[in-house]
Amino acid sequence: MTDIASAQIGTAAQAAEPEFRDFVALLKPRVMSLVVFTALAGMVAAPIAIHPVVALASLLCIAVGAGASGALNMWWDADIDARMSRTRNRPVPRGMIAPGEALGFGLGLSLISVLMLSIFANPLAAGLLAFTIFFYAVVYTMWLKRSTPQNIVIGGAAGAFPPMIAWAAVTGEVSSASVLMFLVIFVWTPPHFWALALFRNDDYARVGVPMMPVVAGEPATRRLIWLYTLALMPVTIAPAFTVAGGPIYLAVALVANAVFLHRAWRVARRGQDQAIGDGYRAEKKLFGVSILYLFALFGAFIADAVLRTVVVGIDWPVWF
Amino acid sequence: MRKDHEIHRRRRSRNLGLLAVLLCLIALLYFVTIVKMGANVGNPWG
């Protein structure tokens, strides 16, 4: 954050009195809902069962850790958030919470969530959570976001860790199934964010964040969305043949991939003029579908886990 | 009677929210402790 922007935001925040909901907003609750859901899937799909109270406590730690990294992101990015229409109503740029408060809140919750997870679950899960917070706050937010168009490609790892952390909290290890769950979110992130970046291009260009459409242009971004969507196909089919997968996951993955491919193709084959003409309808649709896509895949992991509990002795191939 | 200022309302919302969070945390720590102690609960030599 620049010194001038920091001083302006700090002055505005001195006069304000934040409400409880401002601190909740600092945790990025919508991102948190995706984190909680994917972590829940990782936890339920794991081949070992833990006590529901310990599971709930661990899930809470993962959610709070994710929220803490969101607060640190909002502290660092307050200067650009204030100039983007999507983010200008966040608590720090709005002057409701002082930057220092957001920093303290984020650091405090990071520490508490990691320590508590090490007590509730195990040191491996806590270590993975600590690394995730560090990766999102430092590697992505402070370093990659403003320096390279590959920001969300590499930074996407931070959002991909929650199911792996949850799996580690239950089993105490990292397995091929949890690595594939990680890869599903990791490869999904670029087409998801680039669809958003296409119709928010002006925002990112104005604040100088080198998102792919700003740096490489719209046609190149559309091609990359298509290529990443193709790469996503095998990555999302493979988990079906792990201990976490099953027939429901395979069926859902096949249908969801067909829908995603169709939407990505519509975005890939058209040009900027057509997109401007209909207000980036196809890009907005792809963005919306991509969120449902991830919920469907991780919902299918949960459904297969329930199926394994209800129907004992399902003969399903495990290749990975 | 004095009417509450907007600042007081905001402060109360924050304090009540924090109270709820702390109570939930106490309940969580209590139940996790009971679960972790497992079968030895209530037996100091267990």
Word description of this protein:
The complex is a heterodimer of chains A (320) and B (46). Helices cover 76% and strands 0% of the residues of chain A. Chain A contains 15 helices and no strands. The radius of gyration of chain A is 20 Å and the shape is flat. Chain B has 46 residues and is mainly α. Helix content of chain B is 70%, strand content 0%. Chain B is built from 1 helix and no strands. Chains A and B meet through helix 2 and helix 4 of A and helix 1 of B.
Protein traits:
heterodimer, A: about 325 residues, mainly alpha, 15 helices, flat, B: about 45 residues, about 70% helix
- What letter string, H or E per element, gives the SSE order of chain A? HHHHHHHHHHHHHHH
Question: What's the total number of strands of chain A?
Answer: 0
Strand content of chain B: under 5%
From the spread of the alpha carbons, the general shape of chain A counts as flat
Portion of residues within helices of chain A: over 70%
Q: Unreliable stretches of chain A, pLDDT < 50, 5 or more residues?
A: none
Main pleated sheet of chain B: none
Query: Helicity of chain B, in percent?
Result: 55-70%
Class of secondary structure makeup of chain A: mainly alpha
Give a quick summary of the entry.
Chain A is mainly alpha-helical and 320 residues long. Chain A is built from 15 helices and no strands.
Set out the fold topology.
The complex is a heterodimer of chains A (320) and B (46).
Chain A: H1 3-15, H2 20-25, H3 29-45, H4 52-76, H5 78-81, H6 99-120, H7 123-144, H8 151-171, H9 176-199, H10 201-207, H11 212-215, H12 218-237, H13 247-269, H14 272-277, H15 281-310
Helix pairs in contact in A: 3-4, 3-8, 3-15, 4-6, 4-7, 4-8, 6-7, 7-8, 8-9, 9-12, 9-15, 12-13, 13-15
Chain B: H1 6-37
